[in-house]
Amino acid sequence: MSGFLADIGFQPDWLEILGTTFMRHALIGGSLVAIAAGLLGYFVITRQNAFAAHALAHIGFPGATGAILIGAPVTLGLAVFCIGGGLLIGLFGKRVAEREIATGTILALATGLGVLFASLAGANASATTSVLFGNLLAVSSDQLVVFGLFTAAVALVLALVARPLLFASVDPAVAEARGVPVRALGVTFVVLLALTITMAVQVVGTLLLFALVVTPAATALRLTARPAAVAGIAVAVALGSVWIGLVLSAMVNLPPSFFVVAVAVATWLVVLGLTGRRSEVHQRASRDAHAHHAPAAPVGGT
Amino acid sequence: MNQQGNAVELEGVRVVRGGRTVWSDGDLSVPAGAVVGVIGPNGAGKTTLFQVLLGLLPVAEGRVTVLGAPPRRGNRRIGYVPQNYTAAIGEAVRARDLVTLGLTGGRFGLRPTSAGERARVDAALERVGAAGYADRRMSELSGGQQQRVAIAQAIVDDAELLLLDEPLANLDLRNQHEIVQLLGDLQRERGATVLVVAHDLNPLLPVLTDAVYLLDGHPHHASIGDVVQEDLLTHLYGTPVGVVRTPQGDLFTRAAWRDPDPAGGER
Lengths: 302, 267
What we know:
The complex is a heterodimer.
Chain A: H1 2-7, H2 14-18, H3 21-46, H4 50-70, H5 74-91, H6 96-120, H7 125-133, H8 141-170, H9 172-177, H10 182-208, H11 210-213, H12 215-223, H13 227-252, H14 256-292
Chain B: E1 6-17, E2 20-31, E3 35-39, H1 46-53, E4 61-66, E5 78-81, H2 95-104, H3 115-127, H4 143-155, E6 161-165, H5 173-190, E7 193-197, E8 210-215, E9 218-223, H6 224-227, H7 230-237, E10 241-245, E11 251-255
Parallel strand pairs in B: 3-7, 3-8, 5-6, 6-7
Antiparallel strand pairs in B: 1-2, 1-4, 8-9, 10-11
């Protein structure tokens, strides 16, 4: 048994590792990101923007490597590119199909630029790797301050716009007729998403970001459709993924990104398995109910 | 023209979209309390008319009066059900949430929905017969159920003017009947004016009192009896249309190329 544990790199002193400064930073930083991502995930799904969220992370890639190239802070480069990319995607067609094509094209260009900048900057492989896959254990105290500000901004603005944003997301035609500023809310949402992604990229990287921004909310939506409950469960799943992921990574000295994502995906799969069956039964029951019930209004008005 | 008695008035209105005149010389008055079929071929500008009334599209010429005032976005006295209403609404929202947004969706800030507001949402759901599935997700509902929820959202704020764009599309006959019945009932109970865009007049004929028809690039208003005429409908749709009156006194229109000449109430 101990041979096996040694083979997988089990670290008997993992509790002490959890108490170190870099682990504490990772825990705080990861938690801040999880809160922002969990809250925003619900709107990403109701706006049918999951692909855009994924793409924005990739669009951040040249921002990060470009920042390395000119010696600017990586967070700044990520934020500028994510916000710019988000606004650019927003300019393109309203129809989902058009938007997806525009998004995918911008994504490809951005990834190409990212490689170019990385090469020009002579960035070593590990710098590039940490952008692509995240490096939670390298979060600095300066970054924590930025994360704290970003998360506070996301939570505050969402609290203010939640209702009109939901209206504009699920029902844009009626919302517009009712005087809701649909376009302005769209821009607001993109900026919040860009801020969240800027943080999340530094935790799980551009390639794995989806699992932290979209998957927890998708998991929550399997369990309930009450908006406040969805947000709460999504935050809980994201937080749990970060915390459990960090503990596991301390135990076996492997990158936390993998474990964070693995926990989030495993939770999603379990919930999917549990609710898939139930919702089928539910739907069948409701169809039957519909078929057997008398209509609410009398029929036959002619 | 009598300002008080009319829900909608157009005077010399021309509407332009993307540099193209959609329709012009719009002169009509829809009396308050009417149930109006808005008819015309594809692309004639039926939805555009709604957008003008909702204040979403400014007119190029002329004057528009809606419920005694110029059109403006965010007019809470108008309830609106757009075309293909629920096509884009996924599994993330429950019927109840959608109706609640019709009441509070424009409100910024964190103030929770009040008990009074929840009661109004329940009453609207109840009124359209959707109370039984109020807590189900929109994606789980049938087309007819979704349409009821959409109407509940439109009436939850006690709208005086209801604009419904193709509310019967994709519904089976029974659901068409029930929705039409509901529209007629809502008009009677609330004295609301109802404008319904429809391709097929037949299911709506039992409740329609008036029609706005878009013919040759101009909107016209007439009482429903004057519209359901073979030569007018044939001109309107550009294909031969017949009108049938059953022994029971019901009116039907029929496509002359498809339906046999009538012997009775069959369409």
